[in-house]
Amino acid sequence: MKNLRLLQINNVHLTGRFELLSKELRWLCWHKCPLKILPQNFHLENLVVLDLQHSNFKEVWNENRVFNKLKVLNLSYSKNLCKSPCFSRVPHLEILVLEGCINLIELHDSVRYLEGLVLLNLKGCKNLRNLPKSISGLESLETLNLSGCLQLEKLPENLGNMMALKELFIGGTAIKQPPSSLRFLMNWKGLSLSECKEQFSGSWLPRFSSWLSPRSLNPRTLLRASAVSGFGTLVKLVLSDCNLSEDKIPLDLGLFSSLQSLDLSENNFRILPNSISGLSKLETLYLHQNKSLSSISGLPANIETLSASGCSSLETLSFSSSSELAVLYLSGCCNLVDIQGLNLESNMQVELVGCDNLSSDFCESVLQCTRTNYTPCNRLIIFPTSEIPNWFSNQEMGSSISFRVPSLSVGDFRILYICAVYTCTEMSRMWWLDTGIEWPQIKMAVHNKTKGYQQVILPAAPGLLHVNYSDNLFLFRWSILRNKFVMLGNSYKIMELVSGDEIEFSFDLGAFAGVKKCGVHVLVDAPNIMDKNASDVQYICSDAVTGGIFEDDAFVVDEVFESDFSIGNKVCENDIVHRMRSLKVNGVVFEGHVATH
């Protein structure tokens, strides 16, 4: 194994001579590593990515270890780690992830030597009490995630010197007052202040108001335009669980002219602030668990995703005629009676679990559009009903159904529909009362009985098991091209439909919900609107349905290396890091100005 470059040995206890392992390793992935410190004879001098999540380290390496080529270090959820390693001999580190290291109390002062550090993730380090002052000298740092650092009370006052900083996540901390120097940062893309109830009630309110509202500035202060313009570049703003209402919001949201994503969940709004309507670039709006919200209107036409699940007082919802909405989550809006202006042809995902007061005519119109719209896209619909549409050609009682693939002409565009009627159990209600967490998504197995192979996917359905005792229908629609379709969920699964094959679909919701009946239908007379020379995936993959980037760690490794190492190509270090930034690892998106909050 002299030329071995990728080594993935998760949950393995190795003994023996580490010096016999390849000196050419570029990527080491060893989750649940039992070692307390990396052995001196473990040759890692050429390592670019070191992924040691959920490991047993108390001390990662001796201070004399040199890692000249290391660019990515992930020690997430290493619960025995009390102090970060010394970074003085890791000069080229770009990504440092310490998320969930719950006993970490100190970040080594040598972090100041990481001149090329782009991302620092300390999310959930709940015993971290302070940051070294030298952190403000990280001139390349773009993302700093401190969410859930419960003991952290203060940020370095000169944090505003980090001129490259684009994203700051400080929700769920004990920070009492933001440094005044933050107002001078000019490249803001993301700011998360979730769970900052006390801060917005106290000293944060006047400080943020003075920074963000030109009306509060005197003529002399107005000359310092940077006091306002820096925040005008924000793309993502998170203000969830901040005890806000339409009468008590310290910020004029209209000032955030570049905003694309806004999270106002778990607040006390009865109606939305008027200023939201002026956010012409807003694409995603989160309002879930606003228990007092009674109506939603005046949304910008550019909105693509609206999530308002759990708004139990919501009665009416209206969209403009030019709305571009593609994804709508309204599960648990039990008093919702009317949705106006919804363009059903543009919607790829609609979830209405527990919306029992919506008219049957509205639900029927959703189904009808799903059937008659031949646009080449994938779609997921969930709403209250106990009946499978009568146009489904194959229906069965229970949680599984088999059908024989009809005759399909190669190259023609077809549509596959799969649905099931389910209801939640008493166990799901008890789980929700105990934890406040909804149970994970449904598992769907696809078994080709003729060919003898099976695939299991987790369809992306965030509100699928919202606690509710009425029957609900979920309906998946997949486009088929060249007799192939892509099962979208936790990863891409491509399956071929061959005329005459017997296919079985089965659904598993565990003990938390039961499937009463299910159905499958292949539409074989759809107009052929596809370019026969086009790529399968180009047409039938939809990020709006998958939820975006893959989260499975094993898949991440395969995705980065499969096309290179498996065919003997050489991968340069910069290419590895570039791809790492483009993938979602441990809840952080390294590219695209997003990090979870």
UniProtKB/TrEMBL annotation:
Stretches that traverse the bilayer: none
Domain C-JID: 383-523
InterPro entries referenced in this protein's UniProt entry, alphabetically: C-JID, Disease_R_plants, Leu-rich_rpt_typical-subtyp
Superkingdom, taxonomy of origin: Eukaryota
Keywords assigned: Leucine-rich repeat, Repeat
Any one GO biological process: defense response
Name of the protein described by the UniProt record: C-JID domain-containing protein
